[in-house]
Specification:
Elements (H helix, E strand, L loop, with lengths): L2 H6 L22 H9 L3 H23 L2 H18 L9 H20 L26 H20 L2 H13 L3 H8 L3 H18 L5
C-alpha cells in the first residue's frame, strides 16, 4: 500500500477537536458575583463566601471585643445578618466593605447595649504588616522563642491602641480594605480613616523598634 493510499482515508484531527472552552467555575467568581448568586438562591455561593471571609471577620471581631466567647456570638450574628439582608443586596460597593460594615454595626450594637460609656468606635475625631510570626520548623529554639516574644509584643501593642485605631488597622490587615473602604465600613470620612490608620501604624512601629 502506498503512502497516498494509506493516508487517503485518514483526515488529520484538528487540534481544536481536543480543546474545549474553559467555563469559569463558581470558585473563580468575584465576591460580588457570589453574593448576587446567593441572593438569587445559590447556596453554594454562600459557602464559598463564608470560606473566603470567615477567618478575617472572626479575627476582626476578636481584636475589637477581646473575648473569644463574645467574638463567637458576634461572628454568628454577622453571618445571620448577612443572610437576612441577602434579598435586598445590590452591588454598591466592594463586598468586603459591605460585609465589614455589617460586622462594625454589630459591634456598635453590642457596645451600646453593654456599656454605652465605653463606646468609641463611632467617634469622628478621636506600613507595618500584622502577622503573628511563626518560626520555621528548622530554626533554633532561641529564634523560635524570639519570634513568639515578638508576636506577643505586637498583639499587646495592638490591644493597647484606641478602639477606632485598632479597628482601622485590623480592617486593613485582616479585611484587605483600602482607606476609602475602611471609611465606608465604619461610617467616617476618608481623612478620619486615614488618620486613624496612620496613628495606629506609627504607634505599632514605635513599639516594635527593638525588633526592627
Amino acid at each position: 500500500m502506498t503512502d497516498a493510499a494509506l493516508h487517503s482515508g485518514c483526515r488529520p484531527v484538528e487540534a481544536s477537536a481536543y480543546w474545549h472552552p474553559v467555563t469559569p467555575t463558581l470558585a473563580d467568581a468575584t465576591d460580588e458575583a457570589l453574593m448576587l448568586g446567593y441572593r438569587d438562591g445559590d447556596a453554594t455561593a454562600f459557602d464559598l463566601l463564608y470560606g473566603r471571609h470567615k477567618g478575617g471577620v472572626y479575627r476582626y471581631l476578636l481584636r475589637q471585643c477581646r473575648n473569644a466567647a463574645l467574638a463567637d456570638e458576634l461572628f454568628q450574628d454577622v453571618w445571620m445578618n448577612l443572610i437576612r439582608a441577602r434579598a435586598g443586596y445590590t452591588v454598591q460597593a466592594k463586598f468586603t466593605t459591605w460585609l465589614y460594615r455589617i460586622a462594625h454595626n454589630r459591634l456598635i450594637d453590642h457596645f451600646r447595649r453593654s456599656d454605652p460609656a465605653a463606646l468609641s468606635l463611632d467617634d469622628e475625631e478621636s506600613a507595618v504588616t500584622f502577622a503573628e510570626p511563626a518560626a520555621p520548623r528548622s530554626v533554633e529554639p532561641e529564634a523560635g522563642a524570639a519570634a513568639r516574644e515578638q508576636a506577643a509584643q505586637l498583639l499587646a501593642l495592638l490591644d493597647g491602641l484606641p478602639a477606632e485605631q485598632r479597628e482601622a488597622f485590623v480592617l486593613q490587615q485582616e479585611g484587605g480594605l483600602s482607606i476609602e473602604e475602611i471609611a465606608a465600613a465604619t461610617g467616617v470620612t476618608r481623612e478620619t480613616a486615614k488618620s486613624r490608620l496612620r496613628y495606629a501604624i506609627a504607634k505599632l512601629r514605635q513599639g516594635m523598634q527593638a525588633w526592627q
